[in-house]
TrEMBL record, chain A:
<dbReference type="InterPro" id="IPR051200">
    <property type="entry name" value="Host-pathogen_enzymatic-act"/>
</dbReference>
<dbReference type="InterPro" id="IPR015943">
    <property type="entry name" value="WD40/YVTN_repeat-like_dom_sf"/>
</dbReference>
<protein>
    <recommendedName>
        <fullName>YncE family protein</fullName>
    </recommendedName>
</protein>
<dbReference type="InterPro" id="IPR011048">
    <property type="entry name" value="Haem_d1_sf"/>
</dbReference>
UniProtKB/TrEMBL annotation, chain B:
<dbReference type="GO" id="GO:0005524">
    <property type="term" value="F:ATP binding"/>
</dbReference>
<dbReference type="InterPro" id="IPR004358">
    <property type="entry name" value="Sig_transdc_His_kin-like_C"/>
</dbReference>
<keyword id="KW-1003">Cell membrane</keyword>
<dbReference type="InterPro" id="IPR036890">
    <property type="entry name" value="HATPase_C_sf"/>
</dbReference>
<dbReference type="InterPro" id="IPR003660">
    <property type="entry name" value="HAMP_dom"/>
</dbReference>
<feature type="domain" description="Histidine kinase">
    <location>
        <begin position="245"/>
        <end position="460"/>
    </location>
</feature>
<dbReference type="Pfam" id="PF02518">
    <property type="entry name" value="HATPase_c"/>
</dbReference>
<dbReference type="InterPro" id="IPR050398">
    <property type="entry name" value="HssS/ArlS-like"/>
</dbReference>
<keyword id="KW-0597">Phosphoprotein</keyword>
Length: 314, 464
């Protein structure tokens, strides 16, 4: 009997500990975090370009997003729950009853939009995990971005863009895009769209669409497979092309300013402090760029797939 | 016989067929393994050479052209791929595209290792052996050199020879079947002959013999069979001879008795001759009685089980026997000179031993002249004693000596039955000596007499 009690006590401690398994990140700390999908970990890197914390994750998470600057929303394609973890405490706050097939999450203030590639839906949740609204999308909704009014959803295995109203997820309009599109950037009244390319043909352009009409307004030639965007304070737009391992800088008009080789198979790019940060999925390194040059590279966990930044001061 | 040969033949055939099938499969396996292995090695060599010409950076059109040029001179298919979609670069994303390499292969290639695959490749819609070498620059998988050979080509190569293989294997099988059948026949034919000979023997044809050709076990068996057949034939002949002699010996006294009986019936006998004829009839009846008694003794003396060995004082036994033969010795005024060791004790059956002495002495008396002497002596060794009985009779030629113990053997055929013997005396003596593990030997000299040497074991307690 004593043994059973000991065992129960131990189990309780373990369960309690697992709830508290992550080290907290101070609210005042700026960081760029990389989600490493091959070994299920998150590396937090300070503006001094040092890894300040590493979280070993307990499940096969495939993506994450920052919510209200103090929460990390973690999801996985094969998982039927998503977790909201408070950075300042390191505690799991809420488990979201998402369904298997989560492909992407996008937070607008305290609302989290979750795309599901199995059910082909987009669902919005409040921070407590309550479902607010749900809408049908095209085949395999994934990449998302929002302006003040609308949520723009790229259907990865479909040839259409779905535009929902932010509050009730009512489908407002759709327009045609190529399949395997990924990576969005809002540039004034234009929506820039990247992608991998259909079939064996790799995509080599960034498409510019009119935000309102969805009309294709032009194509910008870019290195192979541009799939993520970021911008800097000077208004220039950076894109990462994973097919040719390039980071390219464009003016707001779409003029190519510079391009350099960075990392091996990079999927994610973020502006952080006065640097551009790129994650190399195949070489497991995070690169810091300044003035078109690599100024630092850091070894992180295996398969850094996605980057998230927090700049409290901004 | 046929069944056995058929079984052995079938067994041989099964063994041969199994061996051939196994060899064919094994050869095929080896051929494929070695050939595929060899192909794989040469493919690696090609890919390695091409890889060494890669100088880093983006894979150029020239490089791709160079690898494609290679195809013109080789039966190995080579191509270079730099399309990231083919290289599974988009892998964390779910891609509706069947890329040339998978996630694990990509990881291997990025690490700088080559990948070898065998199996179905949907891209080529056939089984292939492929070798993939990476073109890596600073951890970036810029491209791959893909070398492959359709596996079917190898099996196609083998299938060309399949008809030839099937024909040659079938021919080999038929040849082996024929050879084994013939060899088996050669081995088993003597057995068949032996069987026929046995049947012939069983039917009473004792002159049957088997022709012995081989020196092996079957040959030895045939030889043994022939020896056995010879023994049986000899025994059969002896039996026939014996029966013919017995019937002849019995017929003579019966003819006498019958003849004189009929003469009496027809009153042809004169009164003064009657007493003589009665004596003759009684003598012939006695002879018949003695003959039948001797025949019974012959039949019984072959039975070793009836021998009762015990201690017998030799001198005493001889004296008792001499008393028995004295009447017939006295008729011819024959005297005995006995010089025996009084302490000799025989280890023998008393009745049988006395019978031996009686038969030998009767014989000696029968062939000794009147007023002669018969000497009886003995000489003892450690284990046995030899009793020497020497008469002064007519003696006989040496050629008769080996036969005188044969039943109804007569040295002088003409004298036949007039000497009063049955022709079985010495034969019975020899049988009785043999069952007591003794020996009987003779020496003789014409006109001087015959000596009988009777050796019998002595009672070993004698010396204690």
């Amino acid at each position: 009997m004593r043994k059973i009690l000991d065992l129960l006590f131990l189990s309780w401690i373990l369960v309690a500990c697992s709830d508290n398994s992550y080290n907290s990140i101070d609210s005042s700390t700026d960081f760029v975090a990389s989600l490493n999908t091959l070994d299920s970990s998150i590396d937090f890197i300070s503006k001094d370009q040092e890894v300040i914390e590493t979280w070993k994750l307990d499940a096969a998470y495939t993506g994450f997003t920052l919510v209200l600057n103090d929460y990390i929303f973690l999801y996985g394609y094969s998982l039927d729950r998503a977790e909201l973890i408070q950075l300042s405490t390191g505690k799991k706050i809420t488990s979201f009853p998402v369904h298997e097939g989560t492909t992407f999450a996008y937070a607008v203030e305290d609302t989290i939009y979750v795309a599901n590639g199995k059910e082909n839906t987009v669902t919005s949740f409040d921070i407590k995990g309550n479902e607010i609204a749900k809408a049908d999308a095209g085949r395999y909704p994934m990449s998302m971005i929002a302006d003040e009014q609308y949520l723009y959803v790229v259907n990865f295995k479909d040839t259409l863009m779905s535009v929902f109203s932010l509050g009730d997820l009512k489908l407002d309009r759709t327009w045609n895009i190529p399949t395997s599109s990924h990576g969005l950037y809002l540039n004034g009244d234009e929506l820039w769209l990247g992608g991998h390319g259909a079939g064996s043909q790799p995509n080599k352009v960034i498409r510019k669409y009119n935000l309102v009409s969805g009309e294709l307004q032009g194509e910008i030639e870019a290195p192979m497979m541009p799939i993520d965007f970021t911008d800097t304070s000077d208004g220039n737009i950076f894109t990462v092309s994973h097919g040719s391992n390039n980071v390219s800088e464009f003016s707001k008009d779409g003029e190519l300013l510079s391009s350099i080789k960075v990392g091996a198979n990079p999927f994610s790019i973020k502006a952080f402090e006065d640097c551009i940060v790129v994650a190399g999925y195949d070489d497991h390194q995070v690169y810091f760029l300044q003035n078109g040059k690599i100024i630092e590279k850091l070894k992180v966990g295996k398969g850094p797939f996605q980057l998230v930044t927090r700049e409290v001061s901004k | 016989m046929k069944k056995l040969s058929f079984k052995i033949w079938m067994l041989l055939l099964v063994f041969i067929a199994t061996t051939i099938v196994f060899l064919v499969i094994f050869t095929n396996f080896l051929y494929e393994e070695l050939y595929v292995q060899d192909t794989e090695n040469s493919m690696k060599e090609v890919a390695k050479n091409l890889q060494s010409t890669y100088k880093g950076g983006v894979v150029t059109d020239d490089f791709i052209k160079q690898t494609e040029e290679f195809n013109r001179f080789s039966n190995i298919e080579v191509f270079t791929v730099r399309n990231p979609r083919e290289l599974s670069a988009c892998l964390p994303f779910e891609i509706d595209y069947d890329s040339l390499i998978g996630a694990e292969e990509r990881a291997e290639l990025i690490a700088g290792n080559s990948v070898t695959k065998r199996g179905f490749e949907s891209r080529f819609d056939r089984d292939v052996v492929s070798v993939i070498f990476p073109l890596v620059d600073e951890n970036r998988l810029e491209g791959i050199i893909y070398v492959y050979v359709p596996l079917t080509k190898i099996t196609e190569l083998a299938s060309k020879d399949i008809l030839f293989l099937v024909i040659s294997v079938s021919l080999l099988l038929i040849a082996m079947a024929y050879i084994s059948f013939k060899s088996l026949q050669k081995v088993l034919t003597p057995l068949a002959k032996l069987k026929e000979a046995s049947i012939s023997m069983a039917a009473g044809n004792y002159s049957t013999r088997v022709e012995v050709k081989s020196q092996d076990e079957v040959g030895e068996l045939a030889l043994t069979f022939n020896k056995m057949a010879a023994s049986i034939q000899e025994e059969d002949k002896k039996k026939r001879d014996f029966l013919s002699v017995v019937s002849h010996e019995l017929r003579t006294p019966i003819s006498y008795i019958k003849g004189y009986g009929e003469a009496f019936e027809q009153h042809l006998i004169q009164e003064e001759k009657k007493a003589e004829i009665y004596t003759l009839i009684v003598r012939e009846a006695n002879r018949m009685q003695k003959l039948t008694n001797d025949l019974l003794t012959v039949a019984r003396s072959e039975n070793v089980d009836e021998v009762e060995i015990g201690p017998i004082i030799l001198a005493e036994a001889i004296r008792e026997v001499l008393q028995l033969v004295k009447p017939i010795a006295d008729e011819k005024e024959i005297t005995f000179k006995v010089k025996l060791d009084e302490e000799t004790i025989l280890s023998a059956d008393e009745q049988k031993t006395k019978q031996i002495f009686i038969n030998i002495l009767e014989n000696a008396i029968r062939y000794s002249p009147n007023q002669s002497t018969i000497r009886i002596e003995n000489e003892t060794t450690k284990k046995d004693t030899t009793i020497k009985i020497k008469d002064e009779g007519c003696g006989m030629e040496a050629e008769h000596l080996p036969h005188i113990t044969e039943r109804f053997y007569r040295v002088n055929k003409a004298r036949s039955r007039f000497d009063g013997g049955t022709g079985l005396g010495l034969s019975i003596a020899l049988q009785l000596v043999t069952v007591q593990r003794g020996k009987l030997a003779f020496t003789s000299e014409i006109g001087k007499g015959t000596t009988v040497y009777l050796t019998l074991p002595i009672w070993e307690d004698t010396f204690l």
